Amino acid sequence: MTHAGPALRGGASVHASPNVVEVRDLDKTFGANVALAGVSFTIVRGSVFGVIGPNGAGKTTLMRTLLDIIRPTAGTATVLGSDSRNAGPELRRRIGYLPGDLILEGRISGRRLLQHYADISGPVHEGRIEQLADRLKLDLNAPVRKLSKGNKQKLGVIQAFMHEPELLVLDEPTSGLDPLMQQEFLSLVQEASEAGQTVFLSSHVISEIQQAADDVAILRDGRIVTIASVEELRNTAIRHLRMSASGVGAAELTAILAAVPGVADLACTVDSSALATATATLSGAIQPFVQAISTLQVTDLVVEEPDLEESVLTLYSAPAASVAAPGRDRS
Amino acid sequence: MTAPGVRPRGAGRTPDLRRARLPLFGKVFTESWRSLIGWALGFTAAASLYLPLFPSMNQNAQIQDLVDSMPAELTRTLNYDQIGTGPGYAQATLFGLIGFMLLSIAAIGWGASALGGDEESGQLELTLAHGVTRVQVALERFAAMAVKVLGLAALTGVLVLLWNGPAQLEISPYNLLGTGLLFGGLVLLSGSVALLFGALTGRRIWGVGGGAGVAVIGYAFNAIGNQTATVEWLHALSPYYWAFGHDPLGSGAEWGAVVLFYALSILLAGAAAAALRHRDVGV
């Protein structure tokens, strides 16, 4: 009764396809409004896949489609081996879902509400709810309607994680959580991933995706602008650099640095003690730059952490055609 | 070994939580038992205020004279023409008026909230993301509404039975049973229409509109149809008349009508399930 059968549980069934989610040419229109257009991607078992995009980009529509809450106009979404459309309750028992605009109401306590969701999801181990509530510092006895937004969000997180589903679909999961709880949440995601669970999460907070995800899809106006690993995205990202060197003139330093691929916004000055200082931005690989300055007497060098936010914002705002696939091709 | 031998992760470590058999059905009651008690108290109060007045009305010729002196259209509209008998009095005041009104308000509210209101508030999305089918959600919630409506109808019947002696109503228990079933079925029909409209639109207000429309139009068509023979055909379109048009409390219920109400309600619940099944939810 309580056991859904071995094939339904456990992230590591041997025969399973490595792809937990396979989305092919997914279109969704609401009247004249195009929510998704030709979206395709796959999520590999055990990975954390993030999707980022501005509001209205289609993130929520995409996630709802995987849960069969809305139906695609065209294309298919295969989730854990079955077509998401009308796949039935057995599939959804293996998924944990946290909606983007989570609404929880009612006089009943958080504990009763979670018990209700346990009744209609995959089997939940005894004590699991309390364990998660402890970690998130949530009082399970308070009536749901009296909880703050952040505490309701914690209930949402618990109901998504409590049955240890093979796939977690989390729409803006940290919204409303304070920074400490956001970190706790990210460690839950990491543990899930280590346990073989697959995580699909959306966010508009790039640092969060950067910290949690292995791969990132950038969604804009219902289309995927790029799919890249966080590492690849980082490589395309712009680094700000500042260096000083002695025994070299401003013109010479400018010539050396300008020859390095990816250097832009270059400015050189020489101070009274004949120390030349250059500032610039660098995109792409760092190796050519290091090689170029190896002959100089470098007295100071600062290369900042690549700013993912900046590069993603570039992708948001650039026309779709010019950013077809920057991630994979350039690295 | 391959997949069939793979044990569920964590199996044997800790037992799983027990799961409820009809979770969605049960959830309705864990959420609404307070309001259900409120309605029950309301019905008890209404019945206990109206029914004990009958002996004084019956023995007081002036009241019968008052009713007789009222315009015939008015007495027909209020179904007061039979008010001089116990069954006629209980029918006109309780089943036909205050009880009908109260139970309709309750049932239409429940029906409209069950799917339409739940979707509108955003909570249906999360329920549907779990291991349930939409048909199951619609039918379990319909069943919960039906149980609540029939519970209150049964309570009304019990109250009449309790007052039957003290208030000298002289109602036959058999006729009371039939009337109670008709009463519950009539109201369940409005509630089921509210459920269907909510399922079709995802909006509570449309459910309330649909359900209230059926209740009000049914009442109005019965009242208008009572007036003259030329508009009597309106009775055919009035669920209220199907239920109460033939004096069920005095002369016995038509069992065909009883079956009709419950069959129609189940049909409407099926339609609500089908409607919900084919829609995008929460858009």
Model description:
The complex is a heterodimer of chains A (331) and B (283). Chain A has helices at 59-66, 89-93, 110-119, 128-136, 149-161, 179-194, 206-212, 230-236, 250-258, 287-293, 308-317, 326-330, and strands at residues 19-30, 33-44, 48-52, 74-79, 82-83, 95-98, 167-171, 198-203, 215-220, 223-229, 238-246, 263-270, 275-283, 297-303. Chain A is of the alpha/beta class. In chain A, the strands form 3 sheets. Chain A has a 6-stranded mixed sheet with strand order 6-7-8-3-9-10, sandwiched between helices. A 4-stranded antiparallel sheet of chain A has the order 2-1-4-5, covered by helices on one side. In chain A, strands 12-13-11-14 form a 4-stranded antiparallel sheet. In chain A, strand 12 and strand 13 (275-283) form a beta hairpin. In chain A, helix 4 (128-136) runs antiparallel to helix 5. Residues 1-15 and 320-331 of chain A have low confidence and may be disordered. Chain B is mainly α. Chain B has one domain (22-277). In chain B, helix 1 runs antiparallel to helix 5, helix 5 (86-121) packs antiparallel against helix 7 (134-164) and helix 8 packs across helix 9. The model of chain B is unreliable at 1-11 (pLDDT under 50). Chains A and B meet through helix 2 and helix 3 of A and helix 1 and helix 6 of B.
The fraction of residues in strands of chain A falls at 25-35%
DSSP helix fraction of chain A: 25-40%
Alpha-carbon distance between the termini of chain B?
45 Å
The end-to-end span of chain A amounts to 52 Å
Number of strands of chain A: 14
Q: Sheet bearing the most strands of chain A, described?
A: 6 strands, mixed
Q: Encode the helix/strand succession of chain A as letters.
A: EEEHEEHEHHHEHEHEEHEHEEHEHH
Q: What is the topology?
A:
The complex is a heterodimer of chains A (331) and B (283).
Chain A: E1 19-30, E2 33-44, E3 48-52, H1 59-66, E4 74-79, E5 82-83, H2 89-93, E6 95-98, H3 110-119, H4 128-136, H5 149-161, E7 167-171, H6 179-194, E8 198-203, H7 206-212, E9 215-220, E10 223-229, H8 230-236, E11 238-246, H9 250-258, E12 263-270, E13 275-283, H10 287-293, E14 297-303, H11 308-317, H12 326-330
Parallel strand pairs in A: 3-8, 3-9, 6-7, 7-8
Antiparallel strand pairs in A: 1-2, 1-4, 4-5, 9-10, 11-13, 11-14, 12-13
Helix pairs in contact in A: 4-5
Chain B: H1 23-50, H2 54-59, H3 61-69, H4 72-77, H5 86-121, H6 123-128, H7 134-164, H8 173-201, H9 204-225, H10 239-244, H11 248-251, H12 255-277
Helix pairs in contact in B: 1-5, 1-7, 5-7, 5-8, 5-9, 7-8, 7-12, 8-9, 8-12
